[in-house]
Specification:
globular, alpha+beta, about 120 residues
Length: about 120
């Protein structure tokens, strides 16, 4: 397994989400937050369970193909309401709109720098 910088992996993840038309993509920079469990959260949503699963598959495939990186854990596949993919330094959260609004991770980490990714 080759070593990829966290920032390079972050770009691959965002591109993989965009490839499957993931919506409302946010990158939450947690590097300066004491006790944070990762350096970054990437948060997005899909419009249906099938799209949530497709985004998760795209993220896994692109990270493996382009960076030789595999997640240490994936949770939520099967229900496809909220899929979390753990790459240690980056945790990807893929939601349906309702669970995303309910858990509101962006406000949970509101003291972090949050960047909205502009998509076409």
């Amino acid at each position: 397994m080759k070593s990829t910088s966290t920032e390079a992996l972050l770009k691959i993840i965002v591109a993989a989400i965009e490839n499957k038309k993931g919506e409302d993509i946010r990158v939450v920079d947690l590097r300066h937050i004491d006790g944070a469990i990762a350096n970054y959260f990437v948060i997005c949503q899909g419009g249906s369970p099938a799209q949530v699963e497709a985004i998760a598959q795209s993220v896994g495939d692109k990270c493996r193909e382009e960076a030789g990186e595999k997640p240490v854990g994936v949770n939520g596949l099967g229900t496809d309401q909220w899929v979390a993919i753990d790459f240690v330094d980056i945790i990807v959260h893929i939601f349906l709109p309702e669970p995303r609004a309910f858990y509101d991770l962006e406000h949970l980490w509101e003291d972090a720098d949050i960047k909205k990714i502009e998509t076409e």
